[in-house]
Design a protein that fits this description.
The complex is a heterodimer of chains A (161) and B (796).
Chain A (H helix, E strand, L loop, with lengths): L1 H6 L3 H21 L4 E5 L6 E7 L10 E7 L10 E4 L29 H13 L9 H6 L3 H11 L6
Antiparallel strand pairs in A: 1-2, 2-3, 3-4
Chain B lengths: L11 H8 L4 H24 L3 H18 L3 H13 L6 H13 L8 H13 L6 H5 L9 H12 L8 H28 L4 H22 L8 H19 L9 H23 L1 H7 L4 H13 L4 H14 L7 H18 L4 H15 L4 H9 L9 H9 L11 H4 L28 H6 L6 H17 L3 H17 L5 H29 L1 H4 L8 E6 L16 H17 L14 E7 L2 E7 L1 H12 L2 E3 H8 L3 H13 L3 E3 L4 E4 L7 H4 L15 E7 L29 H8 L4 H11 L2 E2 H11 L10 H13 L3 E4 L2 E4 L1
Parallel strand pairs in B: 1-7
Antiparallel strand pairs in B: 2-3, 4-6, 5-6, 8-10, 9-10
Classes of the chains: A alpha+beta (161), B mainly alpha (796).
Chain lengths: 161, 796
């Protein structure tokens, strides 16, 4: 009994995380926000797949991007790890799909949830933070929207359904 | 080396048929043959030069025996004769012999121990000098009086006149056969000095006779109790007869009681075996078959409790009852008969639970099951219950409330009638068991939750209330009280509201009619307000009623005006509520004058509107009608048929209809009407229901969502069918389905089912089965939101 507890100190937390993720799923499903969506990949609640559609009026309009969301065992006290699975040409996304977004790093707070993250990422597409780029070339090109869009389409691969 | 007897028969019946029952030549031939074999064998063994040669010969000899001789006794004789010539056997030979004997197929069950005993006896007995003299079979020893006694035996049998001649002859044959065995055993006794076979012969004869008698007398007859009289016969005449014909009896005084005991046991066993194979038919005949059941119960108590019985019955049920060709009502009736009959056999009803498991699982897959259960609960249609069952509901206020804790009964130490649960109980999960649950509970418990039943009841009730007049109300109230006892007060809340709505409607109508009447008195409004007394509304609280099928079409102006008037006064009466008309519900009483004849009809509002238009113009095309009524041509075409069959309308070309005009001048009788159709606005009442009494805070957004197919049968008063409603309820899972399909791509049905049951926990855990999900997804495919290809669903 004690051994089991010692081996898995986060046992009870794990339960709480599951509960929290379940209720986030519930509210996400119920909110039914157009353009963003996420769902657990399999029976593992700690690993989700998300989908965001490019916001209208931006170069990403009409494209949809798949995300991988990994929730740590101490979620929501630590931020989830999120990356683009669909290649995304964007100043704050590197070629491996890693994302530079403050609320996923130092500004993470437990009040954020899947829904807010997805919405933040969607708005990040239209409003990149060019001051701390992961993709310098994209940051420089941002000023030239027409050329930028060409690059976006060149890198974009539609997600396999 | 030796020759077989010329007549060699394989079975006793065969022998009887071919030989006309004359055994003696046959028996004599065999006895001579046996002696001959012994002689030959003696010579053969004598000619063997050494012991190993002898052994080889003996082994071969023994192995040929079972192949050539049908009867084990003949084999036995051979073995004994064989031993007589080879004694003394050394222990090695004995072991070998025992082994050889073991490999023979002994159908008559002489144990190895018995053999051993015989062998030992044969070894210790002094060898008789001359076999032929002491052992020759005396056919004349057979006493003819025994035949007479056999006749007496039959006469003592219950239902003696009906016993077939064939059974009698067979028994005579069997009797002679047995006599032969007995005489042979006497002969063996002379050789060996042991008498071990005599009881075995008696058992054999008893079993045979009892079996023949029970099969011929009781098969298919469930309505009278056989066991008592048979028992009397077996213990009296039969045992006496056995003892008479069994000459070994004198040597063993204990045989008498043993035979009685054995015969009784054999009867119980035989009877049980017969009835168990017939159990399905017995249950079909319940309650007429009660005597057979009670007999069977006695037999079960006397013999071992057979799990096999329940299994046989289960198989029978699955094979004969649970297939497409059987009505749901019949299955349910059989289910109840099954429970009742098995309860005779096993008062704890554990066996009933076990046996009926397949039925319960099966009927759950049938859609009309719920309907039949509820309908018979409220005494509709053909009721599945007799008065006694219903009396249980009415009488006992403490009766088993659904899902009550059954533990109480097991811990009831004061119950003197307590019986232990039979072994089958172990097979059934404790939670599923309901000791002493009454029949209705067993029926309603087919469904794990009684919500479905209540919903069905609600549907039936809604149909009745909306179609019937006020007399229905009283009956409905009575039924509701009965159901409350069974399902508890709270679960039937909405039904109560439905009934209350009906009562309230009457008051509201009265109020509105009075208000309208008082308005008419005032001269200022006299000409503008026609009388709307004919119009009575039903005001339903939509939250508590089942969903209605939405139909849209234009009502005639006179009705619309009436609606507006009623609505105006209703607002006055209940300012916080808003009416939402459901024109497809309700009935219209109208009188039409067709070809000079008045005809009264009670039809749906749609039909009434349809015919109303014919009152305005004599002939219409489908398309024009659809435009006038602001609805789809399909709906019009589907429903106009009613008026044609009623002889009011007739076709006049493609998609064109006109009023039947039997007389050349249709205007003569109706006068004021341009055609011969008259709407009776004065005496008929146009009842148009549904007024929505909404909660006070609700505004006008309470449209009943309904997607079921528009053209349904009108019988059901426009209430959404249960199945569609179920699919409707599953819409709350739709966002989940969209969520997973958006993110995970195409998924198979079981994957979706798995995901839903894993992730949907609030507010209630996901509880639908795969079939329901499939129906729901099919609905979504129909609505063009999904596509299904290769077993995978994907979003459009």
């Amino acid at each position: 009994m004690f051994n089991a507890t010692a081996a898995n100190p986060t046992g009870s937390d794990g339960l709480n995380v599951t509960k929290r993720l379940r209720s986030e799923l519930m509210s996400l499903m119920m909110a039914n926000i157009p353009g963003v969506s996420a769902f657990p990949e399999s029976d593992n609640l700690h690993s989700w797949v998300g989908t965001i559609e490019g916001p209208p009026g931006t170069v990403y309009e009409g494209l949809s991007f798949k995300l991988g969301l990994k929730f740590p065992n101490d979620y929501p006290y630590s931020a989830p790890t999120i990356r683009f699975d669909t290649p995304c040409y964007h100043p704050n996304v590197d070629t491996a799909g890693n994302i530079c977004l403050d609320i996923l790093k130092e500004k993470w707070s437990a009040v954020y949830n899947v829904q807010t993250i997805l919405l933040s990422l969607q708005s990040l597409l239209g409003e990149p933070n060019n001051n701390s780029p992961l993709n310098g070339q994209a940051a420089q090109l941002w000023a030239n929207q027409e050329e930028f869009k060409k690059q976006v389409l060149k890198h974009y691969q539609p997600p396999q359904a | 080396m030796w020759s077989f007897p010329t007549q060699h028969y394989t079975t006793i019946e065969d022998l009887h048929l071919n030989n006309g029952g004359d055994y003696f030549p046959f028996v004599r031939a065999w006895c001579e043959f046996l002696d001959q074999v012994a002689q030959v064998h003696k010579q053969a063994v004598g000619s063997c030069t050494n012991i190993s040669q002898q052994h080889v010969f003996e082994a071969a000899f023994l192995r040929t025996i079972p192949a050539r001789f049908e009867s084990w006794l003949q084999t036995f004789c051979l073995v004994v004769l064989f031993l007589q010539h080879n004694c003394p056997l050394d222990s090695d030979a004995q072991r070998r012999l025992a082994y050889e004997l073991q490999t023979l197929d002994w159908s008559t069950g002489v144990t190895l121990a018995e053999w051993q005993c015989i062998l030992n006896a044969a070894e210790t007995q002094p060898r008789p000098d001359s076999l032929g003299k002491t052992c020759s079979f005396q056919g004349t020893d057979m006493d003819v009086d025994l035949d007479l006694e056999l006749e007496e035996l039959w006469n003592a049998l219950p239902g003696a006149e009906s016993i077939s001649a064939w059974t009698k002859t067979l028994t005579v044959a069997q009797y002679y056969d047995t006599m032969y065995y007995i005489h042979t055993s006497i002969r063996l006794h002379a050789i060996t000095g042991v008498h071990v076979l005599v009881p075995a012969q008696a058992w054999r004869l008893v079993r045979w006779v009892v079996n023949a008698v029970v099969t011929s007398q009781c098969t298919g007859d469930f309505e009278s109790s056989w066991l008592g009289s048979l028992l009397h016969w077996v213990r009296g005449p039969l045992v006496r007869w056995i003892l008479t014909v069994n000459p070994g009896n004198g040597h063993q005084p204990s045989l008498d009681s043993a035979v009685v005991h054995h015969a009784t046991h054999v009867l119980h066993e035989t009877y049980r075996e017969l009835r168990v194979t017939e159990l399905f038919r017995i249950i079909v005949d319940y309650p007429d078959s009660l005597p057979a059941l009670q007999d069977l119960k006695v037999c079960l108590a006397e013999t071992q409790h057979p799990l096999a019985m329940a299994d046989i019955l289960r198989e029978d049920i699955e094979r004969r009852l649970l297939h497409q060709g059987v009505n749901t009502l019949d299955i349910l009736a059989q289910y109840i008969a099954c429970i009742k009959s098995l309860r005779v056999l096993d008062p704890t009803s554990v066996m009933a639970q076990y046996v009926t498991q397949p039925i319960r699982a099966y009927v759950r897959t049938r859609e009309d099951t719920i309907h039949f259960i509820v309908a018979s609960l409220v005494g509709d249609d053909t009721s599945l219950f007799d008065d006694h069952d219903l009396a249980v509901v009415k009488g006992s206020h403490h009766s088993v409330v659904y899902g009550s804790d059954e533990e109480d009964e097991d811990n009831d130490f004061d119950n003197e009638n307590w019986e232990p649960e039979p072994m089958e109980a172990l097979v059934i999960p404790k939670s599923a068991r309901q000791r002493h649950a009454d029949v209705i509970t067993m029926l309603t418990s087919i469904y794990e939750s009684h919500d479905v039943l209540i919903k069905e009841y609600q549907r039936i009730l809604a149909n009745k209330l909306l179609q019937g007049d006020h007399s229905v109300l009283e009956e409905a109230l009575r039924n509701l009280e009965l159901l409350k006892i069974r399902f508890g007060e709270t679960s039937l809340n909405s039904c109560e509201v439905m009934l209350k709505d009906m009562g309230d409607s009457r008051r509201i109508n009265q109020y509105i009619h009075e208000a309208l009447a008082s308005e008419q008195i005032r001269p200022s409004t006299l000409e503008s307000t026609p009388s709307f007394q004919f119009f009575t509304g039903r005001y339903l609280s939509h939250l508590f009623w089942p969903n209605f099928r939405e139909e849209t079409w234009e009502l005639p102006p006179v009705i619309k005006e009436a609606q507006q008037q009623v609505e105006r006064h209703y607002q006055h009466f209940k300012p916080t509520r808003k009416l939402h008309w459901q024109p497809q519900l309700g009935t219209v009483e109208l009188t039409l004058t067709v070809a000079d004849h008045d005809k009264s009809f009670s039809v749906s509002p749609f039909q009434a509107t349809l015919i109303y238009h014919f009152g305005q113009r004599n002939s219409w095309t489908i398309a024009d009608l659809a435009t006038a009524m602001n609805t789809s041509p399909e709906l019009v075409r589907a429903r106009i048929g009613y008026w044609i069959t009623q002889g009011v309308l007739q076709t006049a070309g493609l998609d064109k209809y006109q009023v039947v005009q039997a007389l050349p001048d249709p205007n003569g009788s109706s006068g004021d009407s341009p055609s011969n159709t008259k709407r009776s606005t004065t005496e008929g009442d146009w009842e148009d229901s549904d007024a929505d009494e909404n909660g006070s805070d609700c505004s006008d957004e309470e449209a009943n969502v309904d997607l079921s197919a528009a053209v349904g049968n009108e019988e059901d008063a426009g209430i959404v069918s249960n199945q569609d409603q179920r699919a409707e309820e599953m819409r709350i899972y739709w966002s989940f389905v969209v969520g997973m399909l958006t993110n995970l791509g195409a998924l198979s049905l079981d994957r979706i089912q798995g995901m839903l049951s894993m992730f949907v926990q609030d507010p209630a855990p996901y509880s639908c089965n795969e079939r329901e999900l499939e129906q729901f997804l099919a609905l979504m495919v129909r609505e063009d939101k999904l596509e299904l290809s290769g077993g995978q669903y994907r979003l459009k």
